[in-house]
Amino acid sequence: MTELGSTGSAGDRRRAGTRPVRERVTSVDAASARTEPPPRTGRWAVGEAETLFTRSLMRAHGRLAIMCLVSFAIALVLVTVVMSRIPLLDEIALGGVPLTWLIHAYGFYPLMIVWAVGYTLACQRLEGRFTQLVEPE
């Protein structure tokens, strides 16, 4: 068996219960750190048209998100206003809980699901159009 300080094979060190000394491996390019990414070539080359399409896709997604958010907020306010204007809803109670509370607690979740599904479908449609524009035929 070898001593702890001596250099032996990896098998000897494992049997002795010691760990090998760690060595840090660095790249030869470390001194010349790149400031810009390497250019894409071949299939992944990005043209000016793709850049334009990507920017328009991002703007379309932004508009869609804002439209969905604003329309959901309007629907939320409308449901709340309608419930506050109908005094009959306050008089009806199910299990000791006023109907307006139940509508607030459980009525908004289906609205959120409808908006989420609509947003997802619209995003998929936008992505499909983008894919048709970008992919060569």
Residue share in β-strands: under 5%
- Count of separate DSSP helical elements: 4
Overall geometric form: flat
Number of strands: 2
Spatial ordering of strands, largest sheet:
1-2
The radius of gyration is 32 Å
Largest sheet: 2 strands, antiparallel
> What series of H and E elements makes up the topology?
HHHEEH
Average of pLDDT: 78
Residue runs with pLDDT of under 50 for 5 or more positions? none
Structural class: mainly alpha
Distance between the termini: 69 Å
> What is the helical fraction, as a range of percent?
55-70%
Which key phrases capture this entry?
mainly alpha; single chain; 137 residues
Account of the protein in words:
The relative contact order is 0.08. Strand 1 and strand 2 (97-98) form a beta hairpin. A two-stranded antiparallel sheet has the order 1-2. The protein has helices spanning 10-16, 48-85, 88-91, 99-134; strands spanning 93-94, 97-98. With 137 residues, it is mainly alpha-helical. The radius of gyration is 32 Å and the shape is flat. The chain contains 4 helices and 2 strands, in the order H-H-H-E-E-H. Helix 2 (48-85) runs antiparallel to helix 4 (99-134).
Would you summarize the structure shown here?
With 137 residues, this protein is mainly α.
Layout of helices and strands, plus pairs?
Elements lengths: L9 H7 L31 H38 L2 H4 L1 E2 L2 E2 H36 L3
Helix pairs in contact: 2-4
